[in-house]
Amino acid sequence: MIPEFDVEIGYDFEVADLRTNLTAETVASGFTEHHEYECLGLLSWEEAANCLAREAEVLERAARSSEPDGIEEILGAVQEEGDLEYSEFMASFYWNDVGVAGLSLALSAARTATFCSCSSGLDNQHHAEYPMVGVIPDAERAALIARLAKRTGCGIGQRWGRWYVYAKSVTAIHALGQSVLEQREAFDALPQPTWVEGLEDELERLSNY
Q: Taking CA atoms, which of 5, 88, 89, 93 is between 20 and 30 Å from 52?
């Protein structure tokens, strides 16, 4: 089984109030108070597609499980195989939680600035009460994402100029990631955000510290 969480889906946001002052430096080093922030960099659509495909496999297995949280059951089994196997498994999700990793990578490939993600769970070891991905899009990308979110049953909340995309289960979050990937040509047709230029240089500078 894949857990579902008791959250009301809504769309409480104002595109005009989204943050517009992001720079390559702030995106690289962190622009929020969220713990363990790590910039995903300028990921490609191919990398997002690979992650989503791997995630789909895990979610399909989890849905067939009789355990209340089939994802945690799979993760536990991988951990029992050994540290190396677990590291290789999680590396395919860029160390994001399974179920929200695909959307995080797709949004990064769409050139939005993600800043947190959490799949939530039944074990009280996650910081979010329900699956969510934090992101700051520009206005044009926001319009596209909002339309896709409504189509896939995901909600959008806004705080301090930042979006929190959420859902009752990671199944909907994953579906939104797939929808973003399918609309990659539409995203690519939009002007690049100003923070994209210089981001790779900033990430390299930070890695050399």
A: 5
What token pair was written down for 63? Answer: 């849905």
Closest CA to 119 of 66, 153, 69, 169: 169
CA dist 180 and 161 (Å) reads 21
* Sheet of 162-166, strand order: 11-12, 155-159, 162-166, 132-136, 113-118
The chain-wide mean pLDDT, for the chain, equals: 93
This prediction's pTM: 0.94
SS3 sequence, the chain? CCCCCCCCCCEECCHHHCCCCCCHHHHHHCCCCCCCCCCCCCCCHHHHHHHHHHHHHHHHHHHHCCCCCHHHHHHHHHHHHCHHHHHHHHHCCCCCCCCCHHHHHHHHHCCCEEEEEECCCCCCCCCCCCCEEEEECCHHHHHHHHHHHHHHCCEEEEECCEEEEECCCHHHHHHHHHHHHHCHHHHHCCCCCHHHCCHHHHHHHHHCC
| pLDDT tens profile 134-161 | 999 999 999 999 999 999 999 999 999 9
Instruction: Give which of 102, 111, 171 is closest to 135, Cα–Cα.
Output: 111
From residue 142, give the alpha-carbon distance in Å to each of 120, 126, 162, 182: 24, 27, 11, 16
In the block, which residue shows the tokens 């896709």? 148
